[in-house]
Amino acid sequence: MKKKASYITICIVLLAALGVSLLAAVTIGSSSLTIEQVYEIILYKLFGIGDGTALGAGPVHDVVWYIRMPRLILALLVGMGLSVCGVIMQAIVKNPLADPYVLGISSGASLGATLSIMLGVGVALGANAVGGMAFLGAFGISVAVVGLANVGGRANSVKLLLAGMALSAVCSAFSNFIVYLVNDKDKIQTVTYWMMGSLAGAKWENMAVIAPVILLGTLFFWTQHRTLNLMLLGDESAVTLGTDLHRWRQLYLLVSSAMVGFIVYSSGMIGFVGLIIPHVVRMISGTDHKKLIPLSALVGSIFLIWADVLCRVVIHGAELPIGILTSIIGAPCFIYLMVRRRYGFGGNE
Amino acid sequence: MMQIRAEDLKMNIGGTEILKGVSIGAGDGGFIGVIGPNGSGKSTLLKCIYRVLNPTKGEVSLNGKPLHTYSFKESAREMAVVAQHNYYNFEFSVRDVVLMGRSPHKRAMERDNAEDFKIVDEALEKVGMLPFKDRSFSTLSGGEQQRVILARALAQKTNCLILDEPTNHLDIKYQLQLMDIVKELNLTVISAVHDLNIATMYCDKIFVVKDGNIVAFGSPADVLTKEFIKEIYEVDAELLTDKNGLLHILYSPGRYA
Fold this sequence. Notes:
The complex is a heterodimer.
Chain A: H1 2-25, H2 35-47, H3 52-55, H4 59-92, H5 105-119, H6 129-149, H7 157-182, H8 185-196, H9 204-223, H10 225-233, H11 235-240, H12 245-267, H13 273-285, H14 289-313, H15 322-340
Chain B: E1 3-13, E2 16-27, E3 31-35, H1 42-49, E4 57-62, E5 65-66, H2 72-78, E6 79-82, H3 94-99, H4 114-126, H5 142-155, E7 160-164, H6 172-185, E8 188-192, H7 196-202, E9 205-210, E10 213-218, H8 220-223, H9 226-233, E11 236-241, E12 247-252
Parallel strand pairs in B: 3-8, 3-9, 6-7, 7-8
Antiparallel strand pairs in B: 1-2, 1-4, 4-5, 9-10, 11-12
Helix pairs in contact in B: 4-5, 5-6
């Protein structure tokens, strides 16, 4: 009983921390607004409190409502999605080194983005053609990985990983080939910048698609905690416990690649979040996915909100790409965890 | 009562015929042993029965119904498996591990209820691991881990238990302890047994597998003669009955032959 109470306490603390993070992060940015100004606008927009003519328009309104707020919500969603997908991928391939991009999703997304930036493929997708192509690339390669892993017998964790590596190499080669062929300095820079990830493109319009995908995906995986636990035992034990993992693994892979696809669509490639957050959370809660998934979602959101704040303030007058920041923070944390604990899904000290 | 039957099982793996038409049966609370030298096919036979492998030919049936007509969940409600000891590297609590035994009784989104927790506690009680409930599984010794896995199998609430050499790598104390617990459950048991002395102590009947065929069936005392052991395992042995009436097999190293 004691354990259970502490889990609920952790949840409440994290929820409170998320609330505080949202309230605090919205007041921090490159344009100097007072805390009062910011909250006046938010209160007016959300609850209609205050004078509409003064608060409902103007530059301050635009900064708070059209730039800071969507960006904050996007950070929350992306952090949540990447962390949850990291947990899922680690279960699918039964390897704690996995991250959301491990099964070739990153290379697929990059190929899509490169095609769009370099060759203008996918202009029909509208304003965010690059993101759209990246989504198609990410999702497409996941389907291909599942297909390839099923050639010559049922897919298992190892075959999925190998298929992911092979297709990832093919996609990277194609991306590099296109970059080499087109050889346009400006476009190359755009590709590079996109690969570093940024939340600056957040807009309310995109949120209508991304929010449901991430939130429903997270909820879905939360309900799947039993099967996810069985994945760590392996196929043989799972069969004796009444679950054939084969179909579930593919379903989970496709759901999480749709989530990652939308994340890539909205914010490019943000590394290390999906790898490190699940590890940090496992140290608190153990491996049981019933706790691991909601806690990872919360910790991931909080982490990315603050990472984005740091990006906005760390260089005066400019913005650091968030992918760089998460790697700078993430890699040393990861090394610390690796040195401090025996590496694995938790396990022996 | 539970009946489990394998009819004329054949199994080819990579062009090699591992099982060449094996039939075995168990039921009514009997403790059935499957013995045989390494590579004889006994583990393959059990894997066909507990659905990890699909036999190339032949059929396994539960209570007269072919196994493939059962969903995996349904068959996991009929038979539970304790396999060879594996090292798991993850931080599940003992209770989490045993709770997994309830999964064949659960729909995809169903929550664990008080009944499940009660069953988990009872199963842990039976194997004497209740005080370890909140410990991390990975911190237990090999013998303790196998008892927890047995508790997980008990939490499945099945009539049949399949043991695939569960006492491998365990010290003799834990081997006897685990088998004692199983024996007292009065379930239908099919167990692959490595150690002939364990077989004589616990099995009501034994099947002997060699080169993918059943070569003998009967009570351990009837089957395991000096000549038979020489023929199957190619070692010299002496047989001895102790004061409790238990049969013991004593092996002689080659240099005394």
